[in-house]
TrEMBL record:
Annotated Leucine-binding protein domain residues: 33-372
Swiss-Prot/TrEMBL keywords: Amino-acid transport, Signal, Transport
Organism expressing this protein natively: Bradyrhizobium uaiense
Family under the similarity heading: Belongs to the leucine-binding protein family.
PANTHER family: LEUCINE-SPECIFIC-BINDING PROTEIN (PTHR30483), PERIPLASMIC BINDING PROTEIN OF ABC TRANSPORTER FOR NATURAL AMINO ACIDS (PTHR30483:SF6)
Taxonomic lineage: Bacteria, Pseudomonadati, Pseudomonadota, Alphaproteobacteria, Hyphomicrobiales
InterPro entries registered for this protein in UniProt: BCAA_transport, Leu-bd, Peripla_BP_I
Protein name: ABC transporter substrate-binding protein
Amino acid sequence: MKGFGVGRFRIGLALALACVAGSARAEISDNVVRIGVLNDISGIFQDTNGMGSVEAARMAAEDFNGGGKGIKVEIVYADHQNKADVGSAIARKWLDVEGVDAIVDVPNSAVGLAVNTVLRDSRMTFLASSTASSDLTGKACSPNTIQWVNDAWATGNTTAAAMMQRGGKDWYFVTVDYALGKGIEAEATNYIEKHGGKVLGSSKHPLGTSDFASFLLQAQNSKAEVIGLANAGGDTINAVKQAAEFGIQEGGQTMVAFLLFVNDVHGMGLKVAQGLQLLEAFYWDMNDDTRAFAKRFAARPGMNGKMPSGNQAGVYASTLAYLNAVAATGSDDAKVVVPQMKTFKGKDKLFGDTTIRQDGRVIHPMYLFEVKKPEESKYPYDYYKLIATIPADQAFRPLADGGCSLVK
């Protein structure tokens, strides 16, 4: 695999713990369940995903511990470099040659949609725990795909609703110019305009932008009450840092980050990030279960005390849910495993009350947070204060509205 694509991606292989008391059932291909973590290891999502997602998948495999049936699990990983052609080529190689049974993670909506197409109607399962495009449970829905954590509908609609309830009627968007940003802006705009608000303008920027000055000045000059950052990762960090230099929040405008994670806040520091509003599905310091997971994660090789992002928590939760379905059915074929996953309704330790719908959307509560002031933080990664809890049945697009062909 090292020669594939002349070094266009790197792949590592780690054998997860397996109980050897008995052999896996015959329906499990090659007598091993292989899960591929596909993400951005070297680019703008390396902190929120990267090798932390690989460790999260390994933790899930270890906690699964053979599922009481001696099922062997292997975790492989690769870097999609935020390129749809690279991501789909890796997925195809894993499907046709490497015997990988499920792909998990996949930040970057363009890559996620490409992988979704490759895996449709194959024997592989797509655990889209970091792909934010709501098309995955809408017009592009697939019987092979389960979408965890966040999506553009939830991010756009739920964040806009929460902010408008707090008085934010006039908006300006700073948006990354690819599927993720466009989807979030479109969903938020639709909600804002339907509920009496106005969108005063929007600036589009390329992925990986370093200079946000012109975009932020346009946002500042618009006099919009809310400036929405419809981007993610390093783009959001750079935008927030430069907004602080312009004194945007000090001037009375509120900034909301549609896709921000605790790792991003850590990277920019509380002095810069304080007062920022954001929507999250997971926060490491929410309760005893999330804290226990986070402390184990922080102690993993290479994590150096870092707390997990919502995306990394999603990798753990979706990987473990998939493996539990494999154990329940004795098969790693998506045609068997995915329907079994969709029967789940209960409490997930990291995401709370959880249901997996017919369209593949996992619904769970979402939370509006505000980033604390430096003097409010009492210990490392104590960054958020809870503003509002959005119940699971309100946080995501209604089942009947997505246009998914899987919905009867």
